[in-house]
Amino acid sequence: MATTKVIPGVLDLNATGADKGLKMPSGTEFNRPTEVIGQIRNNTNESNQSSASCMEYYNGTSWQVINNNQLPPYSADWLIIAGGASGGSDYGAGGGAGGLRTSYGSTSGGGGAAESPLTLQSNIVYTATIGAGGSNANGTATSFSTISSYGGGRGGGFNPSASTPFNGGSGGGGFYIYNGGNGAASAQTNGQPLPAPQGYKGGNSGGGNAGEQGGGGGAAGAGQNGVGGPTRSGDGGPGLAVSITGSSVAYAGGGGGGGRNPGSTYGFNGSGGVGGGGSGSYGTYPPGGIPGGAGTANTGGGGGGGGAASGAGGTGGSGVVIIRIPTNRYTGTVTGSPTVTTDGSDTIITFTGTGTYTA
User: Fold this and answer.
1) Cβ-proximal residues to 350 (8 Å cutoff; 6+ apart), any chain
2) Could you read off the pLDDT of 264-305 as tens digits, one per residue?
3) 3-state secondary structure at position 329
């Protein structure tokens, strides 16, 4: 029976602070031993990082060099959605969805072409910051690495006074001002264009004093306009379906406009757009006070408009970051407890809260 010997002059496993080293078998590729999976040896005909020799191992099929050089960069597809905005209060308009940007598929938010994948560098830490949905406010931005999506724009409403809707990743719906009001644009709050298409404008309100408000804009379409005959507030714009997780899922739908009392002259509420948009509410005036529906969490959906009277606008849905990378390059080094799944030869990391990935 063969025995394994530990030579004290080479390696002392018991000595504290020993300065000896383990010497591996050494030779060329021409005098390798009979292969057994898991063997490791030094090959004097290979080189690595300016060394005249380097270690190699047998993987069950062939001998492979243990290479200490940094791995090359690799591409990652991504989906980045900001927080949706709240709807307007007191038979208010629908809130705009959070801006949606993606490299996966052929289309991004706002009708733009899909953007370029990210190039990830080995050993670099990349941070995902998830935007919150707005509460009586615009949504907030979501970012990963150098890419940001803008929060949705709040819908117009009566009380508190915010008759003019706000711009955002998708724009908030317009609130009536007796002669009608336009929905807000898919733009930064200062009116400047977004760095890339992210969503659509909010719908316009009608021209009468009947509460026909606009729906909030979505990633794949504008919010619907409020209409009369019968009086009805607009639905939220549709969200965009993206299959980055391996299944087609709609994200970033706009919120529906709020109404008063169906069956009266004060109109029907609008529905939330597919992809997490909250529906507008309605309430008999008085007493009313029914809040709009909330946007769905981690879709960037806009909140629905609140019903009369004094119904609060629904809160927008929070954003999300989804990264799709080759499984053979996934390091497993993450923080923030993201969900990690696989689809074919790729690994998908879904951040619903702030976290990091080390490439």
Assistant:
1) 245, 320, 321, 322, 338, 339, 340, 341
2) 656 689 999 999 999 999 876 666 678 999 999 999 999 999
3) helix
